[in-house]
Amino acid sequence: MPVHGFTPILLCLLPIWRILTPVSSHPQHSRCQLIQRTALCNDGKLSSVPAGLPDNIEELQLNYNSIQTLQDTCLLRYSSLNTLSLACNSLEKLESNTFQDSKLLENVNLASNNLYIGYQETSLALKNLIVLRALDLSENRLKDEMAETLLQNLTSLEYLNLSGNLLQRLHDTSFGDLHQLKELDLQRNIMFEIDNAFNSNSKLQRLNLAFNYLPCLTDFHMSQLVVLNVSHNVIDFFISRQDLNDTFQLETLDLSNNQLVFFPLLPSHSRLRNLYLSHNFVRFYEHLADNVTFPNSTTSVEFYNLKKHTRNVTAKLWDENLHGDISSLEILDLRGNQVDYFPNGFIQKMPTLSRLQMCTNCLETLNLTSEQFSGSLYELDVSNNRLNQISADESTLTSLGNLTYFNLSWNALEWLPLGLFSSLPSIRSVDLSYNNIDICPSEETEISVKTISTCVDWKNIVSLKQLYLRGCDLERIPTSAFTGLSLTHLDLSDNPGLTTQESIQSLGRTLQHLGLGNTHIQDFDFSHFKSLKSLNLSRNSLADLPPSLLNLDLKVLDLRDNNLSTIPSGQANDLAPKLQTVFLTGNPFNCCQAEWFSTFITTETLNVVGQSDIECEDIFQTPHRVEHSHSFLCLGEGGESTSWYILLFLPVCLFFMGIGIIVLLTFKPKMLKKSIKKKCLKPTSY
Ligand SMILES: *[C@@H]1O[C@H](CO)[C@@H](O)[C@H](O)[C@H]1NC(C)=O
Ligand SMILES: *[C@@H]1O[C@H](CO)[C@@H](O)[C@H](O)[C@H]1NC(C)=O
Ligand SMILES: *[C@@H]1O[C@H](CO)[C@@H](O)[C@H](O)[C@H]1NC(C)=O
Ligand SMILES: *[C@@H]1O[C@H](CO)[C@@H](O)[C@H](O)[C@H]1NC(C)=O
Ligand SMILES: *[C@@H]1O[C@H](CO)[C@@H](O)[C@H](O)[C@H]1NC(C)=O
Ligand SMILES: *[C@@H]1O[C@H](CO)[C@@H](O)[C@H](O)[C@H]1NC(C)=O
Ligand SMILES: *[C@@H]1O[C@H](CO)[C@@H](O)[C@H](O)[C@H]1NC(C)=O
Ligand SMILES: *[C@@H]1O[C@H](CO)[C@@H](O)[C@H](O)[C@H]1NC(C)=O
Ligand SMILES: *[C@@H]1O[C@H](CO)[C@@H](O)[C@H](O)[C@H]1NC(C)=O
Ligand SMILES: *[C@@H]1O[C@H](CO)[C@@H](O)[C@H](O)[C@H]1NC(C)=O
Ligand SMILES: *[C@@H]1O[C@H](CO)[C@@H](O)[C@H](O)[C@H]1NC(C)=O
Questions:
Q1: Tens of pLDDT along 281-290?
Q2: How far is C-alpha 381 from the geometric centre of its chain's CA atoms?
Q3: How big, in percent rounded to 5, are the helix, strand and coil portions of the chain?
Q4: What is the pLDDT of residues 441-491, one digit of tens each?
Q5: 124 by DSSP, 3-state: which?
Q6: Which has the closest alpha carbon to 585: 546, 544, 606, 613?
């Protein structure tokens, strides 16, 4: 029917139609939900506190509304209120008598409002809250004097959130009245100075100063503090007061993402368990104290204080107290620093260390025997250093009874202790990727006089589950290399030309994740790998899917950057219901054989990653997005031979279509008018 030709015009008019039809507006009524004594009125476009709620409610949530002012009388009815939350409104002030009858109110959340406008009156209101324990004033564009005003006389306050404001410098009156304060969040301000600001807060336990501009923390003496977070500042030095005899309660210290040059000078008695120092410039300078090699170099550092009244600190570089008390450390995160060695006895001072994260430093050697790691070591990450050799004697390795995760990737390892991994009784995950190591040939006798070896082996290590050997220049894996293992993860990617079929056959029962990207494999038989869930075959020039894949219960399949031109319907139908994630970009797919694509994208349980980036080539070898492939003219099985027919056929087709339209418009102009009238100019009701 020629009338169908007009549907596009009608579709174009449809949006206009929608604009003309007014959205029916509902009368505004509070949509509060009542759960026992809690009233939830969030996100209800309210401009005032609803009046009709039961008198005895204890919690009132009014987040995400548009309340600008809390009026004196608005809470009078709700005198049992214990918790009031008004986050994300456009609140400018609380009138001074708002809380005249709220004698039980303990928790007030005023986050993300505009209290910088009416802070003076608001401060009068807050003074009525005699049992106030928790106050959230975050993101209110408050400046120093505004915060100080708001906090006057709040003597019962225990939890205060001032994050995301405009505080610049704190001094001793800033929190002077907050004698009960336990937790203070000051992150994401623009502070560059905190001068004795916390002297009155003797109960403060958790302090967050992250994302500010503090240049240094000297004379740290808040011995009651349990958690101190000063990450993401510009701190050069962290120095604690050394002459205090009390034990600091500090358990967690986060100094990551600063500009520390020295290891922090920690309190001399503390319970510090977690020390985060990642992304600084920390290294050790003990070697400078060697007055034979460096006769004229200085043997002590002096930390000068900018303030006249605090004393200068002098620390001897080889003084064992330079690091302070690290005897309770469990996590030491030194990722992304410049450590090239550990000072003598440094590791020994941490008898309960369980995680040492040294990724991206400058370590050149690591002698596990001389460092004397504790038996509690669970995770050792020395990836991305300059290690050429790891040494250890057998008894040392056996004493690392808890070592579970060992990351040695991205080094230049050539030498490892003989039988390294078989001596670690709990080892579970080993990453040796991007090193120049070999796998020991099976013939090599276990009994050897050498203690160091240029190859690794891991036969019969029952605890080992995950082994990463990417980019190790492996060519042949000895047949019995994985005998006796029950690996669940094996990554052999980035070893071009690797032959591996027989050696990994023995893992068929247990293997769940197998990485064979960029190994140039062609016809691999996967039929034994019944447990396989995730398979990486990217960058292998595969022209066809290995048929043995289809019988597996795969969830994740990476086929990026291969040579696939299509996925036959049978295979697509087999794979689609089982797979959850598939990667297919970077293949020269044929636009005329892309039925697999609609099979995949119409399967709801399947995520085709980068769907819109998958390309295909048409018969003229022009790339298109495979998403649009249904709009290509494909004849028959789509090949070079049909291209000429299409070239001829297309203009002829267009010609006849043009004629058709002209004829239609000439002989049936009325039909066009009528149809527009009927469908588009229907009177609309307002
Ligand atoms: C607030 O504290 C000041 C002293 O810091 C005191 O003079 C004043 O009376 C207090 N106001 C109230 C309402 O408690
Ligand atoms: C303080 O408020 C900010 C932003 O509202 C929030 O992200 C942060 O978690 C709060 N801090 C605490 C300790 O609850
Ligand atoms: C310190 O604060 C930052 C920013 O809020 C946060 O990302 C980090 O996890 C905190 N550190 C610790 C140890 O909790
Ligand atoms: C710490 O103890 C030592 C002796 O144990 C004493 O000489 C010193 O005065 C004490 N320091 C402080 C600040 O109490
Ligand atoms: C080198 O240091 C040692 C102690 O560390 C000291 O006894 C010796 O006198 C020093 N030598 C020189 C030349 O300073
Ligand atoms: C050390 O200092 C002395 C005199 O101060 C000088 O003679 C000597 O050359 C210096 N040595 C080095 C290695 O700089
Ligand atoms: C700290 O050292 C500086 C620089 O030498 C000096 O001016 C200042 O007086 C010293 N302060 C104290 C308390 O000794
Ligand atoms: C490792 O340290 C031990 C003990 O200090 C020492 O006997 C051994 O020679 C060292 N090994 C290497 C290769 O330096
Ligand atoms: C492993 O850790 C546990 C508890 O963390 C500890 O009891 C045990 O002694 C440790 N093993 C060794 C060999 O130190
Ligand atoms: C080992 O460390 C490298 C580099 O830091 C990291 O990319 C890799 O994911 C780690 N391996 C494992 C198994 O966590
Ligand atoms: C598959 O291996 C390649 C490297 O060969 C890697 O870039 C890619 O991230 C891996 N795919 C998945 C899903 O992990």
A1: 999 887 766 6
A2: 19
A3: 20, 20, 60
A4: 866 555 455 667 788 888 889 999 999 999 999 988 888 889 889 999 999
A5: helix
A6: 613
311 CB less than 6 Å from ligand 7? yes
Q: Which neighbouring-strand residues pair with 238?
A: 217
Mean pLDDT, rounded, for 27-35: 67
Encoded tokens for 221: 């003496």
Q: How far is the CA of 313 from the centre of ligand 7 (A)?
A: 10
Q: Provide mean pLDDT across the span 163-174.
A: 94
Q: Which residues pair with 268 in a beta bridge?
A: none
How buried is residue 46: exposed, middle or buried, by Cβ count under 10 Å (0-12/13-18/19+)? buried
Question: What is the Å distance from ligand 5's center to 290 Cα?
Answer: 8
Model pLDDT, residue 57: 94
For 619-661, what is each residue's pLDDT tens digit? 778 888 888 766 665 655 444 444 555 555 566 667 677 777 7
pLDDT tens for 581-604 read 999 999 999 888 888 999 999 999
Identity at 193, one-letter amino acid code: E
Ligand nearest to C-alpha 162: 2
φ, ψ at 208 (rounded to 5°):
-115, 115
Task: Output DSSP code: residue 317.
Answer: T
**If you take atom 3 of ligand 4, which residue's CA is the nearest one?**
245
Structure tokens at 308: 């006249």
Nearest-atom number in ligand 4 for the CA of 243 is 13
Which atom of ligand 8 lies closest to the CA of 392?
Answer: 1
**CA end-to-end span of the chain, whole Å?**
35
Cβ distance 485 to 448 under 8 Å?
no
